[in-house]
Design brief:
Shape: elongated
Number of strands: 17
Bound molecules: ligand LLP
Strand content: 15-25%
Subunit structure: Homodimer.
Distance between the termini: 10 Å
Binding site for pyridoxal 5'-phosphate: 226, 264-267, 361
Keywords: Amino-acid biosynthesis, Decarboxylase, Lyase, Lysine biosynthesis, Pyridoxal phosphate
GO molecular function: diaminopimelate decarboxylase activity; pyridoxal phosphate binding
Order of helices and strands: HEHEHEHEHEHEEHEHEHEHEEHEEEEE
EC number: 4.1.1.20
Radius of gyration: 22 Å
CATH architecture of the largest domain: Alpha-Beta Barrel
Largest sheet: 8 strands, mixed
Helix content: 25-40%
Structural class: alpha/beta
């Protein structure tokens, strides 16, 4: 698809992100059709990519918004999401952020500690309003993913641990301006082994029993996001297996009558539709390999430097014989490397390089380190 649009890509100033809106639509249609089979509600996790044209597609697909900062809540609402379709999670919500979300009367705060509940109650009381909340519970389920994106183990900072729940319930009885409407879980990201979600369902079912034993009926269960994508074969696996994913929850989650299930997908919806395009600046001989030095670096896409993550790299403009390259950026850090010993057709100054599967946690994590310019985006 990128090669078909080569002329258009060559006209742009590099580096830039290119988003394939057709593919995004197909992905969202598939996800929403599979979710609709079980009447599941999806909130799109804005943290993966908050560009307005992407948000417009999410809205069109009927998804709500999962936000982790006041600015994300604001961004969602300004881009047309109804406050009643917005949820707000995060371990460190500031008073200003909470106040803003209270004023917008968002659907639900996903609360992560008893201290946060006390502050939320205070702020809601001062405003003469009530906050709807879900308790984010840390289920201690291993997501089998990179440790930096594992969130559901007791050692992680996220959620309320099981042994604290009894005291949190006691506290909630004293907080008059808080209404408990659900429970929330999110165990990690880039989860490719679906069995992990089966384990999550087992834990969720246990927590449900626990609440029922205390005469608490929950309106919704939010199982978070985390479905992974295939970074290695983006062309073969353009659309994640949403049928298997939602089907698994349908098979293993035990619901009470009238209870809704909410999901917070980010990566699986947007990763494959985005590519970072960069130009080769220089070729430099190293000891064992050549360096292809790009004009994009970790400032535009930090995932390889931060998580040692793999992104497929392609040379869009050369079809010569393959050689081995370390593909690196211009930033003053040795971790500024997109891939080591990558086989690419003979690469020269001026060639266009595509770094695939970069639609999620790419542009949003860009930084101004080394006083770099903001990265541009185009939509095809
Ligand atoms: N819900 C909560 C509470 C989350 O913390 C996250 C992601 C999501 C939903 C969406 O998860 P997803 O469906 O996208 O896996 N920067 C990292 C990923 C960090 C994910 C943080 N939380 C990366 O580039 O891999």
């Amino acid at each position: 698809m990128l090669k078909q649009h080569l002329q258009e890509l060559q006209l742009q100033t590099t580096p830039f992100y290119v988003y394939n809106i057709d593919l995004l639509r197909q992905t969202l249609q598939n996800a929403s059709a599979e979710a609709a089979k079980y009447n599941y509600h999806v909130h799109y996790a804005l943290k993966a990519n908050a560009n307005a044209p992407i948000l417009a597609e999410m809205l069109q697909a009927g998804f709500g918004a999962d936000c982790v900062s006041g600015n994300e809540v604001k961004c969602a609402i300004e881009n047309g999401f109804k406050p009643e379709h917005v949820v707000f999670a995060g371990v460190g919500k500031s008073d200003e952020e909470i106040n803003y979300a209270l004023e917008q009367d968002i659907f639900c705060f996903n609360c992560e500690s008893s201290h946060e509940l006390e502050v939320l109650n205070e702020l809601a009381t001062a405003k003469g309003t009530k906050a709807r909340i879900a308790l984010r519970i840390n289920p201690n389920v291993n997501a089998n993913t990179h440790k930096y994106i594992t969130t559901g183990l007791e050692e992680n900072k996220f959620g309320i641990n099981a042994w604290e729940l009894e005291s949190v319930l006691d506290l909630l009885k004293t907080l008059e301006n808080i209404e408990l409407i659900g429970i929330h879980f999110h165990i990690g990201s880039q989860i490719t082994d679906l069995n992990v979600f089966k384990n999550l369902c087992t834990r969720v079912n246990e927590f449900q029993e626990w609440f029922i034993a205390r005469n608490i009926t929950l309106q919704h269960i939010n199982v978070g996001g985390g479905l992974g994508v295939d970074y290695y074969n983006p062309d073969a696996n353009l659309i994640p297996d949403f049928a298997a994913y939602f089907g698994l929850f349908n098979q293993f989650l035990e619901l009470r009558p009238g209870q809704q299930v909410h999901f917070e997908l980010g990566r699986a919806l947007v990763a494959q539709c985005g590519t970072l395009i960069s130009k080769v600046l220089y070729i430099k001989k190293g000891i064992s390999t050549n360096f292809a030095i790009l004009d994009a670096g970790m400032t535009e896409l930090i995932r390889p430097a931060l998580y040692q993550s793999y992104h497929k790299i392609e040379n869009l403009t050369s079809d010569k014989q393959e050689e081995r390259y370390d593909v690196v950026g211009p930033i003053c850090e040795s971790s500024d490397c997109f891939g080591k010993a990558v086989m690419l057709p003979e690469t020269n100054r001026g060639d266009l390089v595509a770094i695939r599967t970069a639609g999620a946690y790419g542009e949003v994590m860009a930084s101004g380190y080394n006083l770099r310019d903001r990265v541009n985006a185009i939509y095809l």
